[in-house]
């Protein structure tokens, strides 16, 4: 958890990641696009943990990967303020991006597949330092040992291979590998989803402790809301590639504003560990390649009303709150009217 966040480390502006849909046949040409991430905006403050949540297919992982440039953005900005300079991660060349990679690290969901089974733990954790030519020999070994201790492992684990460890220990190895570069930004992509509940709590506590010690900023991608509530300061709820609600964590869980957030929070845990939520609303998550007109959530929304299938809502601050919601329930009618004219639905 965090101290008092003040300044942004990352500012995401109008970020889009669209995948073209091509026609069949000999002369293939684009006939549409899957809008996996569409006009996403948020600030991530230094020392903060921001959760990105939503159903599978909501665009949360694609959004995180686009920010880190694992995927090339279609348009928009991701302004990264680090070492006294500001760089737009969305526009920077691959060559200029390379030295910045050490400042942005990722912890993956599956500790089983994200660690090379043929490398020792020492080689896995120390590899980023070698690649970036930051340490070698005795210094490298000392830094690996120090990081293993920080994540609750022991220096003698350095000689062992990943298969000799439990799932929770493997995730600790993944965390050690990410943090040995002293990153400013850590993206945790479903980082505890594959772990048992008791182990989840240990890894979450470890992430929180390390955040305090290294002043880390986390973008925490997750679908398990109980985990999000525990670790995140603020939460961005995504649906069909867009942020539909952005709120302080406690405020979201106490008083969700967007009907989709309300549905997410009404979800109950399933006894099947692979199914974390049961929705009490019908329908499927919107197809990002064929979005309905107006609000993408309107076919499933129990509160839809006259403008919902015509006018696309946008994030608007909900009165007397720190919450923004993209829903016509919170947008003044005169603004909806003006947007209807601008969007050509009138
Ligand atoms: Fe429901 Fe309308 Fe709000 Fe969309 S804009 S979430 S359809 S009330």
Describe this structure in words.
With 346 residues, the chain is of the alpha/beta class. It has one domain: 3-Layer(aba) Sandwich (Rossmann fold), CATH 3.40.50.300. It has 10 helices and 12 strands. The strands form 2 sheets. An 8-stranded mixed sheet has the order 6-7-8-3-9-10-12-11, with helices on both faces. The protein has a 4-stranded antiparallel sheet with strand order 2-1-4-5. Helix 4 (137-150) crosses helix 5. It starts with 7 loop residues before the first strand and ends with a helix. Mean pLDDT is 90; it is low at 1-5 and 270-278. Bound molecules: iron/sulfur cluster. Iron/sulfur cluster binds at residues 258-259, 295, 297-298, 301, 303-304, 308, 313, 327-329.
Itemize the secondary structure elements and their pairings.
Blueprint lengths: L7 E15 L7 E16 L3 E5 L6 H8 L7 E8 L2 E4 L5 H4 L6 E4 L13 H11 L5 H14 L16 H13 L5 E5 L7 H18 L2 E6 L2 H7 L2 E6 L2 E7 H6 L4 H7 L50 E2 L6 E2 L7 H10 L4
Parallel strand pairs: 3-8, 3-9, 6-7, 7-8
Antiparallel strand pairs: 1-2, 1-4, 4-5, 9-10, 10-12, 11-12
Iron/sulfur cluster binds next to loops.
